[in-house]
Write a structure and sequence with these properties.
Helix content is 34%, strand content 29%. α1 runs parallel beside α3 and α10 packs across α11.
């Protein structure tokens, strides 16, 4: 497969870090300068290539076996240091809250509580989220934004945290946040926070579809799955550990190691489709429509939905599939994207 010269599904932002020394009467140390800093980070979305629910956990979550994949569709997160010790959040999307209910705010608040000396030394943070990832889509949009804030504040405050330390902090915010910090192609077990990286997939092209007005509650999806299929959950700790370990020798992992896009598509699996597809006919329709298109290697719902994706071998095939889906469903409520796999997690813009 030939290389392509532009990003697909995300923009290239040439915004680096700006350092502007300013004097501030609110400085924690009088008569000194606070170094005002600014970073722009790119926060990629994720899709699930594999999602299996294998049991319950004492903390109320599920034991999962997943294979997660970063994609080039990404949000842009701008962080600016400010002289007072506050957190400010802005977003260009009307559905995204900017108060403490936003995971972005909670990520910044976590860092402020964890590192109060750095907050006093460097000041607070002003955060602007530029959304490109669909909201409430099963693509970890909120989690990847939170991961970007953790990475960005680490830079703003010169904390020097390792990736493992950032992932550990992220796990306290949400199950997908550690993966979003790391990015690439990863086996995720536990509730999703235990990560084992795989070799990054070469560019597989992806068509994503999501109805703007359609949302599926993640809590509903997992609760309904437990109600309908919980009798098959593994109960023994050793059995759970063995099942989680077995994924490393699975057909999906072998296909990833072989960089075999056709076989990867054949091994796509998501347990949550068993409850979401019967309850949401629009999601089922998208999945069936994708499956009928020439050039589609395989299709599946991502996470708890409602986004559905199709894998294609070439950019041209993906673009053609997008055209075909749009012709079949001209509804403006349907968002369509062409993107591709990426090895990157959170990174500077």
């Amino acid at each position: 497969m030939g290389r392509i010269s532009k990003l697909v599904g995300s923009r290239e932002w040439g915004i680096g870090s700006r350092n502007i020394p300013v004097s501030s009467p609110q400085s924690p140390v009088p008569n000194t300068q606070i170094l005002m800093r600014s970073y722009t980070l790119i926060a990629p979305a994720k899709i699930n290539l594999y999602l299996e629910i294998i049991g319950d956990r004492p903390d109320g979550y599920h034991e999962l076996v997943m294979i997660l994949q970063s994609i080039d569709l990404a949000d842009q997160i701008e962080l600016h240091s400010i002289s007072d010790e506050t957190i400010r959040v802005h977003c260009n999307h009307p559905q995204v809250p900017t108060d403490k209910s936003n995971l972005v705010y909670r990520a910044a608040e976590l860092m402020a509580k964890k590192f109060p000396e750095a907050l006093a030394k460097y000041g607070g943070v002003d955060i602007t989220v530029h959304k490109n990832i669909p909201v409430a889509a099963g693509l970890a949009g909120g989690s990847t934004n939170a991961a970007a804030v953790l990475v960005g504040i680490d830079l703003l405050w010169n904390l020097g945290l390792t990736k493992s330390e950032l992932e550990e902090l992220g796990a306290t915010l949400g199950s997908d946040v550690p993966f979003c910090v790391a990015g690439g192609t990863v086996i995720a077990t536990g509730r999703g926070e235990q990560l084992a990286p795989l070799p990054s997939l070469n560019h597989i092209y992806i068509v994503l579809a999501k109805y703007r007005s359609l949302e599926v509650s993640t809590a509903w999806a997992y609760t309904t799955y437990r109600q309908q299929f919980g009798s098959s959950y593994l109960r023994n700790t050793d059995d759970l550990a063995a099942r989680a370990a077995a994924v490393h020798s699975s057909a999906m992992v072998k296909a990833i190691l072989d960089q075999d896009a056709t076989e990867i598509a054949q091994q796509l699996h998501n347990d949550l489709e068993r409850v979401v597809l019967p309850a949401y006919p629009q999601v089922l329709q998208l999945r069936e429509l994708f499956a009928a298109q020439a050039g589609v290697l395989g299709t599946m719902m991502s996470g708890s939905g409602p986004s559905v994706f199709a894998l294609c071998e070439t950019l041209e095939q993906a673009e053609q599939v997008k055209v075909q889906i749009r012709q079949a469903i001209p509804d403006e409520d349907l968002e369509l994207f062409v993107t591709r796999t990426t090895a990157q997690g959170i990174h500077l813009g």
